Amino acid sequence: MKFSRAFMDEDILQDEEVGFLLDKISCPVEIVSSSKMVYDAVNHANDPISEAKKILYITRNKGAVIRECPGTSFYSCCDYTILHTGTFCTMDCSYCILQAYFHPPVLQYFAGFQQISQALEEVFSQNKIFRVGTGEYTDSLIWEPISLSPRFLVETFARQSNCLLELKTKTINVKSLLTIDHNEKTVLSWSVNTPLVIREQERGTTTLSARLKTAKQCQEKGFQLAFHFDPLVIYPGCETEYEKVVDDIFAHVSPDHIVYISLGSFRFMPKLKGLIEKRFPDSVICYGEFITGLDNKMRYFKPLRIKLYQTLVNRIRAHSPQTLVYFCMEDQEVWEKCMGFFPGKPGELGSLLDKSAVLHCKLQSF
Amino acid sequence: MNLCNFPIHPEAGPQPRLPDIQGFQGEIVQVEKDCIDVTDKKFQIRDDLSGQSFSLASLESLGKSIQQVGLIRLPVLRLSSLHADDFQTCGKKYTVVAGFRRIQAITRILGQEKLWCKILPPAIEPWECAVLAVADNSMTSSLLPGEMIRSVGLLSQFYTHEQIADFSETLLGSSFHTSRIQELLAVARMENFWPALLDAGKITLRSAILIASWDKNTQRNWYDIFSRIKVSSSKQAQMLTAFSEILAREKMDAQLFFSHPDVTQIMELDTQDQGYKGEMFRQYLMTRRYPFLETEKARVKAHISELCLPKEIRLELPEHFESQEYGISLKFTSHAQLAQKTDQLVKLISHPAWEGILSRQG
Fold first, then answer.
1. How close, in Å, is residue B326 to chain A by CA atoms?
2. How far apart are CA A2 and CA B312, in angstroms?
3. Which of the residues A131, A220, B229, B248 has the least number of beta carbons within 10 Å of its own beta carbon?
4. HEC string of chain A?
């Protein structure tokens, strides 16, 4: 990971965590008294989004460390918990919502293991299952080569029994994790897609083959796994190619190690379209047959989503009927037509996922 | 648009401020019509090609007005001596800075051989004439889109985009950012018939700006299409977006699209109804852009028509078939009508068309 500039708040303690980070980044660090300099550096660029991927900002999380995943009432939500350890990403996927989510986007590393520990202790002490992930506002493992954070989190979660830690990534950065005693509490998960989508829409990410080989390596070290088909992109011949991805997954890893597989078709806030057109002029990803969904995001016309979901669900079930497959943000009709049931009661989908988490990660049952 | 007299110079702009138009005293003289070179249109803002502003009817109306109340604002001319070559070639003495339509009305409609005009001093600079020409139009009424394009085109020969943006509110009647000036200039650079289409209300400025970003052949094709159809501004935007996305989706060359038999067939429809033709073309674009959605809409629509719903009963489909909620609304003016319509509705419930309406793909 190479940065053109790095900034750090003047009040950040230079402890082991920060010392490791500073040692790993190749450019000099500019100490700042406020974030304004960082925002200026990003905003003054011709393409602030691309620029932000090259500028690291070491700061403190000044907001909530633990947050509930924002769902909407129109589509079923999985009751996920977000551990907020950083923002933005060094990879460059055309469809990435983070391009439009932050104003401007800034690649922030939130230093302070103690702050994270304190927040987690509150979660660890509850009589409830939590599925906690760091991959909502950033890729969980882009940080692994330069930071002790992923390792710290795996070790922290290994010492408790009611929470699963999910590290979601498109990288193969697992080297420092393979030798740790994770106590099966960490799920390493990969966002997967067809080789065509990866090649054309996911700049700077690893190949599908590399991701699956790494998943296999992690499985051999006893880690639990998850896969996210998200975003599913509809294009001519995509069904066959997605089936092949399913086949590839099961060719690499055992169903026994898969905690869950999620499916979500490409959906986006309308303002993302202009950004994609500007930053990825060759991409046609936003020219699918999209309609405005009930949550005002653009979604594929429902019958098209259902058709692709049915193909994938059938293929996954052919390999492993017992693997938990769920939809990220879909409604009753989609669930019933593709899965034959709908976890529509509040918390019902979350509960299904919790059960799988308990089973695979040997969590305490409540 | 005729901008050939002065090359467009975005960087040019030695004039840091607007000239004081009030300060142009000029001399009021009676000029023989043959001494006015009406073919020199470099300062003309209002179009005489659109068939609207310079139509015979419009000239007759202006002529009548001049006859009744006199000429309130005099046409403004400048000596052509600055262009001695032109003078010798055509034998004319004056160039028109403002008042093209007034001159036409006086000479063609009222048949006068001489007319009162304001002659600007010989030392006046072209950039001062440009500002005067724009002001003469914008101060009397809001500029039409095509006039706005011409005004910006004319000013851009003497001022930078930033300068035009700075005094846009004063001179053009609307406050524009530099980026907007650039967009307007892109339209100005299109072939000269677009302002006429704009002023005729056949196309919005927003649509013209989008079309200006495409190649010349595509611009010509869209000009041809918008000359033959009439659609609302929102539908124009919908159609142009669908067009560009169809090309991207189908990896298709624009010319191939326009030469498609379906497109040519619609454009050659034997009808004078430009609205109908526009709607046909819009539907074609939407079906090609959203094939599954539009096919489903058409399928359900066909089933709904089988119901022969009375006009007071309206079936509301879920938008884009995303939700599963259907609705029925009923209008009535009395209790008796409510009873009658409800009864009609109850009888319709057993109609077999409902199966087709409520069945969902997937």
1. 14
2. 67
3. A220
4. CCCCEEEEECCCCCCHHHHHHHHHCCCCEEEECCCHHHHHHHHCCCCHHHHHCCEEEEECCCCCCEEECCCCCCCCCCCCEEECCEEECCCEECCCCHHHHCCCCCEEEECCHHHHHHHHHHHHCCCCCEEEECCCCECCCCCCCCCCHHHHHHHHHHCCCCEEEEEEECCCCCHHHCCCCCCCCEEEEEECCCHHHHHHHEECCCCHHHHHHHHHHHHHCCCEEEEEEEEECCCCCHHHHHHHHHHHHHHHCCHHHEEEEEEEECEECHHHHHHHHHHCCCCCHHHCCEEECCCCCEEECHHHHHHHHHHHHHHHHHHCCCCCEEECCCCHHHHHHHHCCCCCCCCHHHHHHHHHHHHHHCCCCC
Report which residue type is found at A15.
D
Nearest chain B residue to A331, by CA: B323
Cis amide linkage into residue A346, ω under 30° from 0 = no
ipTM of the complex model: 0.89
List, edge to edge, every strand of the sheet that includes A290-292.
A267-268, A298-300, A290-292
Helix (H/G/I), strand (E/B), else coil: B114 = strand
CA distance A223 to chain B (A): 37
3-state secondary structure B210-271: HHHCCCHHHHHHHHHHHHHCCCCHHHHHHHHHHHHHHHHHHCCCHHHHHCCHHHHHHHCCCC
CB burial of residue A67 (10 Å; 0-12, 13-18, 19+) = middle
Name every residue in B having a CB less than 8 A away from some CB of A.
245, 248-249, 290-293, 296, 319-324, 360-362
Of A289, A291, A303, the CB nearest to B362: A303
Q: What token pair was written down for A151?
A: 């390792």
Q: What is the pLDDT of residues B124-160, one digit of tens each?
A: 888 889 999 999 889 888 898 888 999 999 999 999 9
Q: Which residues of chain B have pLDDT under 70?
A: 1-18, 20-24, 48-54, 81-92, 192, 362
Contact B322 A299 (CB under 8 A): yes
